[in-house]
Every structure is written in structure tokens, then in C-alpha cells.
Specification:
Elements: H1 5-11, E1 14-17, E2 32-35, E3 39-43, H2 44-57, E4 66-70, H3 80-96, E5 99-101, H4 108-115, E6 122-125, E7 139-142, H5 145-152, E8 157-160, E9 163-170, H6 179-190, E10 198-203, H7 212-221, E11 229-231, H8 236-244, E12 264-269, E13 276-278, E14 286-288, H9 289-292, E15 299-302, H10 310-320, E16 330-333, H11 338-347, H12 349-356, E17 359-360, E18 380-383, E19 399-402, H13 405-414, E20 430-431, E21 434-435, H14 436-439, H15 448-455, E22 461-462, H16 467-470, E23 494-501, H17 508-511, H18 525-528, H19 540-546, E24 552-555, H20 568-576, E25 578-583, H21 588-596, E26 600-604, E27 618-622, H22 624-630, E28 634-638, E29 642-647, H23 652-660, H24 663-668
Parallel strand pairs: 3-4, 3-6, 4-5, 6-7, 9-10, 9-12, 10-11, 15-16, 15-18, 16-17, 18-19, 23-24, 24-25, 25-26
Antiparallel strand pairs: 1-2, 2-8, 5-22, 13-14, 20-21, 23-27, 26-29, 27-28, 28-29
Helix pairs in contact: 2-3, 2-5, 6-7, 10-12, 10-13, 11-15
Length: about 675
């Protein structure tokens, strides 16, 4: 039977499944599957907790084909905390056999694409934008740090078998329209919850017109759909990209079978696309730039794991060449990796950007997670990032628009929303998967051999030590690094006050903020827990403290926990006493993280029951043992009178994890 590319890669990595499984035939959607993980990645904001948990597993060396620890989030060092974390992470990498990407080497997803990703492999990362790897034909999935720790220890990754949505691309992008506009169009149609439980697989003749960095932009921001991941075929463009990175030997062809069936097909004619923007304050609030044209802009930032490749920087340079940033606009650009920065310098791109007035920022996540370059109060900032949740930029009342590098460049030099195609610039021609103006154009300074030579300069990546050398390594721990708190003991019956009732689309930024103030506390749960849910209710922590952190629950609306993979959005609530979260629907990664930390995720059988509950009510969870063991609906009593039910869609293994008191306890007790 013909299979999609996603199905083929998943089946090549199947360890077990709840469903009847015959290789070469589709697996029943929604059934729990366990897949072998070939590669893992972590970044420093989630990595410290992941490795603290990995240490407790007791494995002397990682069991994956390759694991990498990246430093890219907490690079703003205003005191000892972040550098202490960096030293801890480097010593752990040396001790347990990981590659270590040093601060300044770049953003994990960009560097992994350049240096490590392989078509046909599986990648699990403690960052929600790990699906970037789908741009070269990987099944690359974001997860909580504890899931990644288990994978590094040799355990399988469990997830419901996703639906496979096909995205058929035809035509070719017009001048001034970028890959970002493709994923914004998908978001416009599908919304931020449309991809829950699904993989988006791109196919069609339009795929051939997109370079690997363009594909990676699309798979990266596919995370905003709530999708498990996104994937492109590995073809001749993929081969050329890997060859340019000095990794031609890593290429394999990966494609769907002829005549395969998708659960749904979305068709996009690239020739008909126009420049788009995601408007405040969610990635699916999409408008065409033509509707926004003329509105004043005060800041432009180009970078992040979504749009910081050499392709992106060259596109910007083409538009701003000979021009200057408009008065009243501040503009910054953050190359995605040290390799990209070096290549941009050799190509003359960096010179063009500096001459135009761009501030060159560090090759790191930076402004995307509120680490510097915050907008002015009530500012209009155009960013080539992937998220525009309220307050994420570091300025609570800023209006953040997500746009392509082409649109951002046009706004930077005009001072207003502008369609790039109207700028009268000379667009690049593509030759062998690279921009002609960089490689062979009139003023080109960069050859393909220059790119390959630069890409192979990997002095900022420290390779694993031998087992003998590793045995002598001492792990370094600063005073801010605290052990991960244990989950609370499981109970079959609980009486829980509703400490907070939230609305739709609560993000993990709302549950546990990022930013320069909070991120350095990622290694210290007692301290970081003080920020739990404070964006929704400033009194949440103080009310929890006044209740002596007694057991409680939270009620939410649709798509609760969208956004980042940060398990701290489960750890913080767990530490403060949250035992259950009841919503209309959950985002995938957050639901998994809640289960990992012993918090029971429930969804209303009747969404209208949400209106029957008020903050301060008491909910009784009755006979959880029966529900978790038998898969029957959860019974919830409101204030001892009204009774409602909640859907029990929790897989058997997840139920066992909850009854064991979280994934760590489940693993220690021999659970697989």
C-alpha cells in the first residue's frame, strides 16, 4: 500500500504501538505509538532541567546516534546565573557524550540544519521549533525536556499516531513574496489549533522552487499550527544544500509513495500568493500587507530560528542596498549562526546591512524570547519571528506583526508597512539552490567553495569525549541550579478548588513567561514558580502561597498551552499544587508535559460545561483509578451538587504515568 513520507519514516522507527501494525500499511490515527529517536537537541533554557533529569536515570552515556546541547537562549549575562548554566551544560555534555555548541555559535535549529540533521532520521528536541528539521526530510518533533532525557537514555518517544495533512504547492513565488508568506497562508486557513494531532507534508512541483532554508522557515513555523511536525521531501535541492555544508554523504532521497493518501489536502498556488502579516496578538490573525500599507512602523527585527539564514539576509540586503533605515525606525538583524554571519561577511551582505543602518545582534534567540531589543511603548514592531503573543517582546503594550524578511526590509527603509514588490529592487535569480547574486552575480564575492569551507569551520562545536576521558569529568553546578522537585503523590479522589479560570488560547508564555527577568531562573523551580500564571492573574502565586500550596486545579478554554515546549509551564503549576487542568482542548506538547509531571489533563465532554464553573468553585474528581485503568470518562462534581463528565482520551501508558506520580517515577519503576 502507498504511504506518505511521514508514514514511511515513522514506520521505519516504530518500537511499539497500541494499534494493530503491519509494515507498509497505514497505522490507525490517534493510537499511541512509540518510535526510536536517532538524534536529540536541547537548548539552555530547557536543557538544564532536561539534564538534571537525565542524571537521575543513571545511564553513563547517551544512547542516541547523536545528541547536541546548544547555548542560544540565555546569552544575556547580567549576573552569574546564565553562565553558571552554560558551565553546567558543557560539563554534562563532556560527561555523557554529547556535542556542545558554545554561546555565539548560533540558534539550535539553524545550526542543527547546517551541521547535524539527516534526511529520514528522527529528531526530538526540548524546543517547540525542533520541526525545523523537517525542511531536510526529517521527522523532527518538539517535546518537554523529560521526554528528551528519556530518549537520550535509550527510551522510545510516545505520541498519538498523527493524521497526515498534505499541502500541495504549485507555481512559483513572485518577487517580494517569501517562504514566510506560505506558512502564514497555511495559518490563515488552518488556525493555531488546526494542526493538533497532525503532520503537514508538503509536495507538488512548487516544492522544487524552494531552497532548504525556505522549506525550513515553513516547517519551523508549522509549530504555530499546533502540529506534531511538518516535513518536505529530501530531493536534489536537499542534496545541494548538504553538499554546500560539506555533508553530501548525509544525503538520502526521501519521498512519498506514488498514489499515497492524505487525511486532507490543502492546495496553494505560490504564483497567487501576496505578502502577509500575522497581526497582534496571535500567529493566525492574518492580513495582507496591502491592507496595512502606509501604517507607521517604529521597529524592525530580522532573525530568529524562522528567518535568519543566508538566504534571508541576502533578500534583505537586495532590498536595502543603497538605501538607509527610515528616521524614527530602529532596525536590528540577528544572523542565525556563526557560519551564516561569516558567509554574510564574505559575500558583502553584512557590509550592505551595516551601511543601511541595521544594528547587528548576536547569533542567538535574543529578541524573539524577550532578551533585548524590546519595542517602544505602544510600538509597532515588524519581526520575522514565529510568535507574537502579548508581552513576549518584552514590552507589554507593543503591537508585534510577524512578516517575511522581504516585508521587514521594505518597512525598515520606508518607515511604513510596504509591499516589497513595489520597492524596485533587483530580485535574485536562483542557481543550484543558491541566490545567483551571492554566487555569480555582478558584484558577487562568495563562491560555493567559500560556503563549503566556511560551513566546515566548526571550532565552536565541542565534540564528545571518549568514555575514558568522560569518566574523569566533574559536573559543575552553580548556586542557582536546584534539583527538579518530585511530583505529588497520585490520589484516586481529590477535592480541588479552582484557583484560576482562563479563556481561549492561553500560551505557555502566559503560564510561564520568558524574558530577561525570568529565563535565568529555569534551573530553579522554587524561584521561577513565583511567575506561574501571573500574566493572567498577578495574584496567582500569592494566593497559592496563602493556601500553603494546597492541591488545586485550573480551568481553561480552547487550545490551552499553545506555543513553546517549555516544561516549566507544567513544573511551575505542579510545584504550586495544581493537580488537574480542565479545558475545552489542549495543545499537544503542553498536554504531554502535564502528564509527565502528574497533572491530569481533562477536556469537557460538553464544551458548554465550561460556563458552569467559576473561579473559587470546588471540583471533586471521583474514582480516578477506574477512569485511568478502564479508559472511561472522568467524573467531576461541581461544589458537591452538579455533575459533569470529561473526555478520557489518555493512552494506557500515559494513564500509568499519572498513577505512578509522573514520568520520572514511572521510569524509575521500570516503565518503558
Amino acid at each position: 500500500m502507498a504511504l506518505t513520507l511521514a508514514e514511511k519514516i515513522i514506520q521505519n522507527h516504530i518500537v511499539s504501538t497500541e494499534a494493530k501494525f503491519t509494515k507498509g500499511e497505514p497505522i490507525e490515527r490517534g493510537k499511541d505509538i512509540a518510535i526510536k529517536i536517532d538524534q536529540t537537541l536541547t537548548q539552555d533554557a530547557t536543557g538544564t532541567m532536561a539534564y538534571l533529569q537525565f542524571e537521575t536515570i543513571g545511564v553513563p552515556r547517551v544512547k542516541t546516534e547523536l545528541s547536541v546541547s546548544y547555548i542560544d537562549h540565555n546569552t544575556l549575562q547580567t549576573d552569574f546565573k546564565n553562565m553558571d548554566d552554560h558551565r553546567y551544560l558543557q560539563s554534562v555534555a563532556a560527561k555523557y557524550g554529547l556535542y556542545f555548541s558554545r554561546p555565539g555559535n548560533g540558534i539550535c535549529h539553524q545550526v542543527h540544519l547546517e551541521c547535524f540533521g539527516k534526511p529520514g532520521k528522527t529528531l526530538l528536541g526540548s524546543d517547540s521549533h525542533t520541526p525545523t528539521g523537517g525542511g531536510i526530510g526529517m521527522i523532527a518533533i518538539g517535546a518537554g525536556g523529560l521526554d528528551v532525557a528519556v530518549a537520550m537514555g535509550g527510551g522510545a518517544f510516545h505520541t498519538p499516531m498523527p493524521k497526515i495533512f498534505g499541502v500541495k504547492l504549485t507555481g512559483k513565488l513572485n518577487k517580494g513574496v517569501g517562504a514566510k508568506d506560505i506558512i502564514l497562508e497555511v495559518l490563515r486557513r488552518e488556525t493555531v489549533k488546526g494542526g493538533t494531532g497532525a503532520v503537514y507534508e508538503y509536495f507538488g512541483e512548487g516544492v522544487e522552487t524552494l531552497t532548504v532554508p525556505m522549506r525550513a522557515t515553513i516547517t519551523n513555523m508549522g509549530a504555530e499550527l499546533g502540529a506534531t511536525c511538518s516535513v518536505f521531501p529530501s530531493d536534489q535541492s536537499t542534496k545541494r544544500f548538504l553538499e554546500s555544508m560539506g555533508r553530501g554523504q548525509d544525503w538520502t532521497e526521501q519521498k512519498a509513495d506514488e498514489g499515497c493518501t492524505y487525511d486532507k489536502i490543502i492546495e496553494i498556488n505560490l504564483s497567487e500568493l501576496h505578502a502577509l502579516a500575522a497581526c497582534p496578538h496571535n500567529p493566525d490573525v492574518i492580513k495582507p500587507i496591502s491592507e496595512l500599507a502606509g501604517q507607521k512602523v517604529t521597529q524592525v527585527v530580522i532573525g530568529s530560528c524562522t528567518n535568519s539564514s543566508l538566504d534571508d539576509l541576502e533578500a534583505v540586503a537586495a532590498i536595502v542596498k543603497g538605501k538607509h533605515i527610515a528616521p524614527g525606525v530602529e532596525a536590528g538583524i540577528a544572523p542565525g549562526s556563526r557560519t551564516t554571519l561569516l558567509m554574510a561577511s564574505k559575500a558583502g551582505i553584512l557590509e550592505t546591512l551595516i551601511e543601511a543602518g541595521f544594528r547587528i545582534l548576536e547569533s542567538a534567540c535574543g529578541p524573539c524570547i524577550g532578551q533585548g531589543f524590546a519595542p517602544n511603548s505602544e510600538g509597532i514592531t515588524l519581526r520575522t519571528f514565529n510568535r507574537n503573543f502579548k508581552g513576549r517582546s518584552g514590552t507589554a503594550d507593543a503591537n508585534v506583526y510577524l512578516v517575511s524578511p522581504e516585508t521587514a526590509a521594505a518597512a525598515a527603509v520606508t518607515g511604513v508597512f510596504t509591499e516589497a514588490e513595489t520597492m524596485g529592487y533587483e530580485d535574485a535569480v536562483w542557481v543550484n539552490g543558491m541566490r545567483y547574486s551571492m554566487l555569480e552575480g555582478k558584484d558577487a564575492r562568495l563562491s560555493l567553495s567559500d560556503i563549503t569551507q566556511t560551513a566546515q569551520n566548526r571550532g565552536m562545536i565541542i565534540p564528545p569525549l571518549s568514555e575514558e576521558e568522560a569518566s574523569k569529568v566533574e559536573i559543575l553546578r552553580g548556586p542557582n541550579i536546584k534539583p527538579c522537585p518530585a511530583c505529588r503523590e497520585y490520589k484516586s479522589n481529590m477535592s480541588l478548588p479552582v484557583r484560576l479560570k482562563a479563556k481561549d488560547n492561553v500560551s505557555t508564555d502566559d503560564i510561564m513567561p520568558a524574558g530577561a527577568k525570568v529565563l535565568p531562573l529555569r534551573s530553579n523551580i522554587p524561584e521561577i514558580s513565583k511567575f506561574t500564571l501571573t500574566r493572567l492573574d498577578e495574584t496567582f502565586y500569592t494566593r497559592s502561597e496563602e493556601a500553603n500550596f494546597a492541591d488545586c486545579c485550573v480551568v481553561g478554554g480552547e487550545n490551552y498551552g499553545q506555543g513553546s515546549s517549555r516544561e516549566h509551564a507544567a513544573l511551575g503549576p505542579m510545584y504550586l499544587g495544581v493537580r488537574a487542568v480542565i479545558t475545552k482542548s489542549f495543545a499537544r506538547i503542553h498536554k504531554a508535559n502535564l502528564i509527565n509531571y502528574g497533572i491530569i489533563p481533562m477536556t469537557f465532554t460538553d464544551p458548554g460545561d465550561y460556563d458552569k464553573i467559576s473561579q473559587g468553585d470546588t471540583l471533586e474528581l471521583v474514582d480516578l483509578d477506574s477512569s485511568l485503568k478502564n479508559g472511561t470518562p472522568f467524573i467531576v462534581k461541581i461544589n458537591g451538587t452538579k455533575q459533569i463528565t470529561c473526555v478520557n482520551d489518555i493512552a494506557k501508558r500515559s494513564a500509568d504515568i499519572l498513577m505512578a506520580g509522573g514520568l520520572a517515577a514511572y521510569t524509575r519503576n521500570g516503565g518503558q
